[in-house]
Amino acid sequence: MSTPFSTPFLSAFLPDLALLVLALVVLTTEIVFRKHQARWTARVAVAGLAAVLILLAALPLPSGGVAYAGYQVTRSVVVWKQLFALATLATILLSRSYFRNGHSLRGALANPGAFYGLLLFSTTGMFALVSARDLLTFYIGLELATLPLYALTALQPRNAGSIEAGSKYMLMGAFASALSLFGISFLYGAAGSLGFDALAKVASAQPSLSAQPFLLAGVLMLLGSLGFKLAMVPFQMWAPDVYEGAPTAVTAFLSTGSKAAAVAATTTLFLGPLNLPRIDLGAIFALAAVLSLLAGTLGAMRQSNLRRFIAYSSIAQAGYMLMAFTGGEGSEAAARIALQYNLLVYGTASFALFFVVSLVGRSAPETIPSLRGLSARSPALAALLALSLFSLIGIPPLAGFLGKFLLFAVAARNGHYTLIFIGALAVALSFYYYMRLLKEAYQPVQTAENRGAPASAVPLSPIRLSLAGKCAAALLAILLVVLGTCPGMLNFIASR
Amino acid sequence: MTVPDILFAISAVAVALLSLCVVLARNPVRSTLLLILSFLPISLVYVLMQASFVAILQVMVYAGAIMMLFTFVIMMINPAPHAGEIPGEEPGAEPSRKSDVLWFALLALLGLVLIVPVRYAAVRMVAQPVTKPDFGGVQSMAQLIFTHPDHNPLTVSFELISILILVGVIAAVNFGRRQAHPTSGSATQANQLKDGNP
Fold this sequence. Notes:
Chain A has about 500 residues and is mainly α. Chain A contains 20 helices and two strands. Chain B has a domain at about 1-95: Up-down Bundle (Four Helix Bundle (Hemerythrin (Met), subunit A)), CATH 1.20.120.1200.
């Protein structure tokens, strides 16, 4: 435990404090600027988040990490925080156009201060979640990460779908919260303390399962509550409805930032203090992975709404990521790296997809048929869509391939070959549903003359990108290629 | 069975029944009053667990202050004669008691089934009686939060809770305020001051 306000203490906690201050500042920016409130609030948030990212990357950290009270900062915690900050940054950049009128059929967003403020508070919660050293901090971090998301989902009060999604999400989340509190109280009963150290001691000392029924009950309940956040089967029911109803930028954050936080939380607990060598949690994770893969893959095939499609695809992706928890003893480091790399790659591909969806959604409903003729309207966008979909499937040399390979490798360490076979099968099936999007994008539009039917409602005006849009598209495309071909670069950044 | 056991049984059943009544009550005012009532047996449970400070807070803060606010809000926003009826249901229709009873029986059965594993686990768990003289008092609570010698102090979690509450306030203000036109900045703020802040 380090003393408060010493140099290592400050260098470890400064990014978190800076993020918290930023969230409070962003909340009040609305009052300072009378005109262009949304634009200025976004600018302040982006500048602040960039500063937080620089702080995270530049501040030195002692090799053993720094701990104070229920909070600790280590190397891998810093990597998680960088992932969360990047996801938030991308979400803010994506959301800027939604505050202007006429940029979405669903109506413009209002209240930029609350929107960006809540987003940053959620990120603060994620920071606390991965830094937790006891179950209380962990739980409060989890709540702080998800509570703003309920509000963000319901932030379009004129849109009945948004309100419905928000209430559903909140009710499901409240149930998951109750489940995790119940589980935490059982674990407290078993360990006599909320600290992760004491918990790890009890978890590794028990000779058999029946000696500690409270421990097992607590572990299963916590797993269930994290399953909600992960959208893992059988706790995935909320995902399609919430993804469909939430504002587009919030959906993007749910499927990237929030998913990363859920994976990080599961990693913190189940590759940390609750890594029970004598209880085979790997079997439970493997079962959940198989079910999630099945539900996600089969569900995605039937969708025509893009957001529901993305929701099911993210359920399937959660299934792949759950495979990293089946590695057994000694695979913790490999699993953590596989998950972090995979989340970065999945996040990049998702944001590329959402970028295309947001541009198509300006003039047409966000459905798969609206993508028709995209290659004629904007060849660059269609190429970006193709790159993103190929990466989501996992076609080499794109980044998604290496991500899936790492996950499968972790599962193989423990001999889960059936699981890997099912995973490979799901990849093959995912070809079909991801290619449906691409087929629409590259299909020439049938005009009224050669089809004899009324002209389609999709307007065929070319999509013009602003300079910032062009830069974002180019950056996403470069990232998708470079992350897959030179993953060693990340190693260089992470091991500074 | 000792006296604390009997007291616990009574308060546990009372909490369960009163919470059920909170959900089943058609009238929101009645529901709120039942919620206040249900806090009292909960504080009794806290006393039985030797957490006297939390018990006092439960009565003072929740039953005293927060539920008063609840009642105020409900009385302010719900003056209609048919207040509390669930929209979509026919106004005069008597709610079906049969299904309520069925649900109650089902939940009670579930509770009975759950007793067996919990009892099994509780018997096997080594009971650790509280021996510290000041357990549950104000001083030991403060030590737990700020300077606990054995455990990690809960300072950070304590501060994080305040942020959590702030987020709740922001969300509530945001839903409570009248939706102004997105472009008219000063009107938004005026509405915010008028509607959001009490």
